[in-house]
Amino acid sequence: MTGPSPARLLDIRGLRTHFFTDRGVIRAVDSVDLWVDREEILGVVGESGCGKTVMARSILRIVQKPGRIVGGRVELEGIDLLGLSEAEVRRIRGDAVSMVFQEPMVSLDPVYHVGSQIEEVLSTHRPAMSGRERRQRVLQLLRMVGIPSPEARVNSFPHELSGGMRQRVMIAIALACGNPRLLIADEPTTALDVTVQAQIIRLFQKLQRELGMSLLMITHDLGVISEIADRVVVMYAGSIVEQASVRELFDRPLHPYTRALLRSIPNRDRDPRKSRLYSIAGSVPNLLDLKPGCKFFDRCPHAMADICLGTEPPIEEAEPGHLVRCRRLRGIQAKDSL
Amino acid sequence: MKVPAPTAPFFTVKGLKKRYPVRTGMLRRVSAEVRAVDGIDFQVSRGRTLGIVGESGCGKTTTARMIVRLEAPTEGEIMLEELDLLHARGEQLRELRRRVQMIFQDPYSSLNPRKTVGRIVGEPFIVHAVCPRRQVRNRAAEVLELVSMPPDSMNRYPHELSGGQRQRVGIARALALSPRLIVCDEPISALDVSIRSQILNLLLELQERLSLTYIFIAHDLSVVEHISDDVAVMYLGKIVEIAPVGSLFDRHLHPYTEALLSAVPHPDPAKRKDRIILSGEVPSPMNPPSGCRFRTRCPIAADICAQAEPPLKEAGATHFVACHFRG
């Protein structure tokens, strides 16, 4: 891995966020290293419980109890967000770094007009703005996110909007301050129909370009990732198991988990209709009783106890820019080339 | 009526409609109606799978619920072999309930949290009195074995199971009474990605072993393409295109089918392509557009589309499409 460079916007090192439950400590984010370059779209992919959402919430320090960030650094342009006071972080949240959540119906307040919900962000972060300026800005934002006839929509309640329109409003709220450096989007298209999902993906791409911001896109949907990301991070049970450029990851996945996941999705060019699909044994592990060692051990077709158990394998550069956390990698690659 | 099947019809739906009244005001008078399903026809042959795709509000789930009689249709006909699903009473109705079962989307909310797996799967045997009480446990164990659940799962509660195991229990319950037709309503979309292919494989295996007929509702088109023999595309309560799976995916005709297929993101960045991005969203089924319902979002709509509703017509061998300009 290379040291910090001016291209790097966000640099996360050794981030650990644990949940202290009655039944034990859940290491939801277990020493994560990750970076986002300027104007880059980074995709984070993983299944439920892999820690992707908790990782994202840790960046903004909005982890819910009984979760707590117990270690690591989250540097935004060289400043460690974990070392700031609560008041300082609050100035960054919703301004330089914003987040769009999965379910817009839950995140919007049902009793306020969407216009006033966008205005609220402005009155918090831009107290000097006049009411008139704020209203102008709201209309401009609604236009920017592609809401038709914004003058009428300002006074709509969230329930009067479709799912796609609500998600557009959420994006407008996230970008209200006008100077976003990083937008974090957590499963922003999961609740939407495919034709609307395609619209929202296009919108994210357009805004990323126009505003010159970086985007951290979290999803379980490999299709969405391949569509939008420049680079991809794959998470499993709290750890990053692989990261690479999007082309590299989909063309040459190296970690057994990534490989299995990609093979299990029906592919018309590979799987004849109604044939049995490749499937991954078992289910997502319970984070309360993980064996020490590789977290994918129980489900991995290449697992060897003496090599894979004991300590967690380190993440290593297998190819330039392609990092993999697997001690069996050489063995698997040798077998592949036979 | 319209879609001929290669073999004798096993399951037939004709002119099926479901309207929900919308009541407003102090007197709760009916002021409008939602036409959730507005006249659909299809047939499914024994042992085959009909996939139904479409976006929210297209009527696919309402159709599923009418087939298992969780909703009463406003109009139309549903026939399973010689049995009339809508007019069956008494013993005939019980027979139908045994023959037609459903697998639900969410295995978290469709299993009773207070009952053990054994009781959940055993309940159909008791309700339908198909075997003496003392055999119920054995029968439940047999069905659980069919879905590869370990025998000790009998005494477990749903919360002790993983999502994939819960869906297996949901499938076991549907299989208990040896049904002929199973309606699968988004059976894998609530599951983790790494679990989905296990459940799809199970459904494929059960179909072969038990010659089951499936109506498979899903929004994931690559899954529908993999599992289906025929596919119907619904939009705002209507079937806009229905065809054998290969024909639908390779030679689709309706502009909506084209846009829907084009909108699906593929897990292959080399296939990032110029997508057809439809403008707007699905209109309200309370007030659907006149003529062709897709015309408000259709890239090739013309005057005629507002005036006349295009009928579903044959455009090739067993390939039907409802569009004035295609087919």
Q: What are the main properties of this structure?
A:
heterodimer; A: 338 residues; alpha/beta; eight-stranded mixed beta sheet; 33% helix; 24% strand; B: Rossmann fold; four-stranded antiparallel beta sheet; 10 helices; globular
Outline of this structure?
Chain A has 338 residues and is of the alpha/beta class. Chain A has helices at 52-59, 86-92, 104-107, 114-125, 131-144, 150-153, 163-174, 194-211, 222-228, 246-251, 256-264, 305-308, 329-336, and strands at residues 8-21, 24-37, 41-45, 67-76, 79-80, 97-100, 182-186, 214-219, 231-236, 239-245, 316-319, 322-324. In chain A, 33% of the residues lie in helices and 24% in strands.
Question: What can you tell me about this protein's structure?
Answer:
By secondary structure, chain A is of the alpha/beta class. Chain A contains 13 helices and twelve strands. Chain A has helices spanning 52-59, 86-92, 104-107, 114-125, 131-144, 150-153, 163-174, 194-211, 222-228, 246-251, 256-264, 305-308, 329-336, and strands at 8-21, 24-37, 41-45, 67-76, 79-80, 97-100, 182-186, 214-219, 231-236, 239-245, 316-319, 322-324. In chain A, helix 4 crosses helix 5. The longest helix of chain A is centred in the middle third of the chain and has 18 residues, at 194-211. Chain A is globular, with a radius of gyration of 21 Å. Chain A starts with 7 loop residues before the first strand and ends with a helix. Chain B is of the alpha/beta class. Chain B has two domains: 13-41 and 49-220, 3-Layer(aba) Sandwich (Rossmann fold); 229-327, no CATH class. In chain B, 30% of the residues lie in helices and 24% in strands. Chain B has ten helices and twelve strands. Chain B has helices spanning 60-67, 90-99, 117-127, 136-146, 163-175, 193-210, 221-227, 245-250, 255-263, 303-307; strands at residues 11-24, 29-44, 49-53, 75-80, 83-84, 100-103, 181-185, 213-217, 230-235, 238-244, 313-316, 319-321. In chain B, the strands form two sheets. Chain B has an eight-stranded mixed sheet with strand order 6-7-8-3-9-10-12-11, with helices on both faces. A four-stranded antiparallel sheet of chain B has the order 2-1-4-5. In chain B, a hairpin with a 2-residue loop joins strand 4 (75-80) and strand 5 (83-84). The longest helix of chain B has 18 residues, at 193-210. Chain B is globular, with a radius of gyration of 21 Å. At the A-B interface, helix 7, helix 8, helix 9, helix 10 and helix 11 of A face helix 5, helix 6, helix 7, helix 8 and helix 9 of B.
